[in-house]
Amino acid sequence: MHKRRSQVERDRAELQELLAASQSPKLKRKSLTKPLNYNFMQDYGDDEPSGANAYTLWGARQADLSRSERDLRDSRELREPRERPLASSFFSDKSDSTPSVVITGSSSLSKSKTKANPKKSTESVYDFFPDVHKFKDVQHLPTMLEGLKALYEDQLLVDVTILVDSDEFPCHRLVLAACSPYFQAMFTRDLKESRKDRIRINGVESEAMRLIIQYAYTSEIEINVDNVQGLMLASNMFQLLGIRDACAAYMERHVTLGNCINIYFFASAHECGNLQDLARELIYDKFADVCKEEEFYTLGKEKLIDLISRDEINVEREETVYEAVMTWVKRDMDNRKDDLLEVLKHVRFALLSPYFIHDCMERERLIYSSKTCQQLFEEALQYHLLKDRRPNLKLLANMNVNTRRGMPFKDMVIFLTRNEVSDISVGNDNYRLRTLPDLSEHPECVVMGENQIYTAGKQHIEFSTRRMHRRGGGLYQYDLFEKKWLSRAPMSFTRTHFRMAVLDGQIYVVGGVGPDGVLASVEVYSPQTNAWRMISPLPHAVKAHCMTAFGGQLYVIGGECEDTVLDSVLCYNPRTDIWSNSANLILPRCSAGIAVHNHEIWVVGGTVTLISDKHPENMLKSVEIYCPAKNEWRFGPELPEGRCNCQIVSYNNDIFCMGGDTGDEESENKIWKLESESTGWVDDKSSWPNISPPYSCVIARMIRDSQ
Question: If you compute the radius of gyration of the chain from its CA atoms, what whole number of angstroms results?
Fold first, then answer.
């Protein structure tokens, strides 16, 4: 015991001496002749303590040494830069064995200093020992995983049993919770499952559960055709996104015509975007083949409707979709015949041939034996028969008229401008650009039927060597195949500021300004005879009005007459050749835009002053909507800014306001789309041409690949 006390006292004295030397700047720092030895047992040789007493004495000595070392270190930090040690200086010189740990640190000594002062390596270990050292065992994680796997295989330390169907899977809560957010929530929150030793899991297959538990212990899983759907279902439930994505990638490589429908709806239910897109694209692109696969005939009603209601279906003829639906019904007649009408409503009868519709009504027993189905077919025939009244037909509310992706034609907005248009890049699937013929002022444009585009306006005066020719107002029809304008019979009067509309297969031209002033006359053009005739004139002359056809009648709204802006609404009945008055506008206006939308007449913008006095402050933002059934007007959502002479079109069940004049010298081209009556108009220039007003717009059915 005396020896041990003497040793402690000697060590303490040596440290105190070093501490005193370091605190005096005049004294040269004294180095230890040998490093302090941390091996307490080695210092005491054969006479070392044993048992608890040894650890008690060792701890007391370590405490004393630690305090002294800290004092010495703090003193040196205040007086001179620290020098970091080499890692090898930490170990005792008496040990020849290679250390089993790696200690990383940084030294403030540069390489040049090390070479210039080789004797520095003999200094104390405390002069070189790093402040921070980090050890990383790269074998730790795989070793731990192997250990957990061994515990699972030997059923050691298991603390929970998962029950799926009739199978039991003893495992460790900790492993499941660390692997899956689902089990982490189950075991770490105050749920009743957190206190159970046996937990039943529903909604997953037993084999999928076995594979997922095995994955938790091994990080590996085997995916094949038989288990991929069960694994995806389970991994989605347990929020194992890695397995879910691996299953999706596996299924992406195995999508075929025979399974793409099931994969599409499966991926949709489990939020696998890439897989869903891949299967959907195959269905749409190869619909004519997919609809003949057995998977198609096993679809439920809702899923079938989801497929056939898409614009993206790649078919050249709508008859393909109709025949697929009828085959689906006949595969299970007893259970599906009551669903026939609901499914047929998603077939686009507007795209079927009227002859095909007629033959189906005559020959298909399922159709002629059902009154409701017969009514649907009769409405479709009415749509094909009354081409010029299509926007007015109520049946359009239940009929989708948009063309499918694979069809060679599509309804488009035709922009007619007086500027030259190149034959290259003059449109996309939403619009086409066309140059108007040489008409001098304010041309009007209409479409008859599906795609017969007409334009009319005042023509230039022609001169010859003998006399001057003053022709009537010019009329032109656009040839879709030759891509040029064909001259038709001219109007009886030259007109500007008039309006033109199509009613029951004939073109009506009303009012305007002629050589002798404002006109009340009305002319009608018949394409069958290529001739004009006069009908009953307006009750009063008018110009800068707006006009449309609805329900078999013409409506002439607002305008300017004798230096007065009108609020009148005149209605013409072609069967009686009589003009009558309807409910007046709320506000008088002229040069407004007009369209029929959702079986109502929309009058948009305009000006409250004469057309010769255009100023921005006179432009109207207001919109008025007329209901013919109630013969009353109401205000609609206002435009973002006041405009006159804007083009209003109803396209793809939306209404657009295009172009127009703000009263400034140069008006910026604006295109607004009405999202809803509650949210108002929004800017929608992204998919439309950037052209300068004025221009005219009409809707016509055009060939897709033609420019």
Answer: 45
| Count of beta carbons in the 10 Å neighbourhood of residue 147 | 11
The strand pairing partners of 412, in sequence order, are 700
299 plus 414 within the same structural domain: no
Q: Quick one: pLDDT at residue 2?
A: 53
- Residue 492 in tokens: 């009886």
DSSP structural state of residue 206: H
The token pair that represents 30 in the structure block: 């004294």
Alpha-carbon gap, residue 303 to 306, rounded angstroms: 5
673-682 LR contacts (CB < 8 Å, sep 24+): 674/637, 677/636, 677/637, 678/637, 679/637, 680/637, 680/638, 681/637, 681/638, 681/639, 681/640, 681/657
Q: Kindly tell me if the per-residue pLDDT of 529 is higher than 90.
A: yes
Provide the residue range defining the domain that includes 593.
409-459+469-703
Find where tokens 């500027």 sit: 419
Please check whether residue 210 is in contact with residue 216, taking contact to mean a CB–CB distance below 8 angstroms: no
Task: Using alpha carbons, list the distances in angstroms from residue 479 to 275, 421, 457, 485, 568.
Answer: 45, 16, 18, 6, 37
CB 473 within 8 A of CB 437: no
Mean pLDDT of 53-62: 45
Residues in the chain: 707
Note whether residue 316 is domain-resident: yes
Can you give 13-59 as a three-state secondary structure string? HHHHHHHHHHHCCCCCCCCCCCCCCCCHHHHCCCCCCCHHHHHHHHH
Q: What is the pLDDT of residues 133-172, one digit of tens each?
A: 888 899 999 899 999 999 999 999 999 999 999 999 999 9
Strands 167-171, 160-164: pairing is antiparallel
What count of other Cβ atoms lies within 10 Å of the Cβ of residue 422?
A: 9
The answer to whether residue 262 is domain-embedded is no
Residues 6+ apart with CB under 8 A from 52: none
Write out the DSSP string of 96-143.
Answer: -SPPSS--B---S--HHHHHH-GGGGGS-GGGT--S--B---TTHHHH
pLDDT, tens only, 207-221: 999 999 999 999 999
- CA distances to 335, 352, 434, 488 from 422, rounded to whole Å, are 57, 34, 9, 25
Whether 477 and 509 share a structural domain: yes
Angle between helices 273-285 and 241-252 (to 10 degrees): 20
Residue 187 one-letter amino acid: F
Position 620: which residue type? L
Residue 183 belongs to some domain of the structure? yes
Count of structural domains within the chain = 4
Place of tokens 């006390």: 5
Predicted TM-score of the model (pTM): 0.68
Q: Cα–Cα distances in Å, from 674 out to 287, 344, 393, 671? A: 34, 30, 22, 10
Residue 416 CA to residue 486 CA, distance in Å, equals 15
